[in-house]
Amino acid sequence: MATTDAPEPTDPATSPPTTPATTAIFDRDPFTLGVASGDPDATSVVLWTRLAPDPLAGGGVPADSVEVTWEISGTSGFDTVDAGGSVTAEAALGHSVHVVATLEPGRWYYRFRVGDFVSPVGITRTAPSAGTAVPQVRFASASCQNYEDGHYIAHRDIAEQQPDFLVWLGDYIYEGAAGEIGVDGNVRTHGTPEPTTLSAYRDRYALYRSDPDLQASHAACPWFVIWDDHEVENNHAGLVPQDVADQPTFAARRRDAYQAWWEHRPVRLDPPAADAATEFRIYRSADWGDLVHLALLDTRQYRSDQSCGAPELSLDPPCPETFEPDRTLLGAEQEQWLFDTLDAHTATQRWRAIGQQVVMSDLTLGGAVLNYDQWDGYPAQRSRVVDHLAERQIPDVVVLTGDIHLAGTGTIRAGERGVGAPVAVEFVATSVSSGGRVDPVVADLVNSFPDIFDVELEHRGYILHTVTPDEWRAEYRMIETVKERESPVFVHSTYAVDRGTNTVRFAS
Ligand code: FE
Ligand code: CA
After folding, report:
1. Residues of the chain with pLDDT under 50
2. By Cβ atoms counted within 10 A, which residue in 230, 262, 308, 387 is the most buried?
3. d(CA 222, CA 233)
């Protein structure tokens, strides 16, 4: 997708190394974390790897800087190398590599080399340019992969499905301390305490990236990624940690977590600034020909703290703070940016997708806010967004959501629930592996909420979207059980949005 409106990063491939780089220093494979690509536009894509011969103990690279070669080919056997170059992996950035590779339009194979070692091969592609008529795109949306909770069968299925791209909606790592195997049905362990430093976050990412199914999913297609809370700490809000006792050290911790995120993600962004208080902007947009405009939001970095002390599943009326008009999930700048990018792409793309973290649909129960972390806890913010969609008559908006570990779909309206004008359809991915947070026995209750078309609370999985000019189809692919290494994948349901309706229907 043509990444627009985002700050242009400097190209690490052309940055001068700080010390002379070396290559022939490894006695074992430095490509243990696999490869990835991301943020494709019409002429380029970001290629990623990180050198880590000792992945779970700091990486283990015995030099400050290492020269890495990258290669592009039209064939998986690299019969001809059609593009390539070299880039320096620096210790200060975890020996991660982010190459902005300029490519002819299409689908490409890529790999990296250091000395005699060759990385696994990844598949990537450029995006159709914004003016190109695109008959169809297939892409996955997914979130929430607690390593301890289950196996990444969803990622194995994504690799087999070979979508054009994947949108990752957050909770790529979980920051929890090691649980005990066998307790709460964990299938494996984080093995380490809760990370609070750069080196500890690096090791946590490396643990996740060591999973072969996750590596296969990354190697299968480019990803567009955003974060949610667990990339730093559960339910944090801006610079406010979940636990007030952690406040004195939280800014430095968040900065380290942001850097580890950058080091492990195939993003077209510069690394975060050294100053812990400086914004690290990740919200951005992309285009897939004339078919889809994708706005990727950050509802974590700029938000007001959760109101009322954020009680869970409370049936009490919300405290007055909840309704304060200046409460925000997006921050004023991002909110204006979202309005601008939606306005500017109303006529240029058939569909507008908003990739974001927490449930936007109204799930209040008799006025009670069941989850203060999602848009229900920020009613003024939600009104500003849905009112903008309604007033500007921005058509064919689809909201892609993660976070809540349940599968669901429904209609978002401006004004009163059930009767207001429909302005968007929301598709909530379940989780790749993270345990369900809502007891399956309440499925009937949630299904009875106005505007909620369907929810499924029991299974883990992801959504495979197939979008054409006239119809958006969302296939909810689910795993029998993520507690076993091998388990069947099944289609729970497929839902569809007909262009011009802003309403979801059952398709199959
Ligand atoms: Fe999660
Ligand atoms: Ca979350």
Report:
1. 1-4, 6-7, 12-14, 16-17
2. 230
3. 26
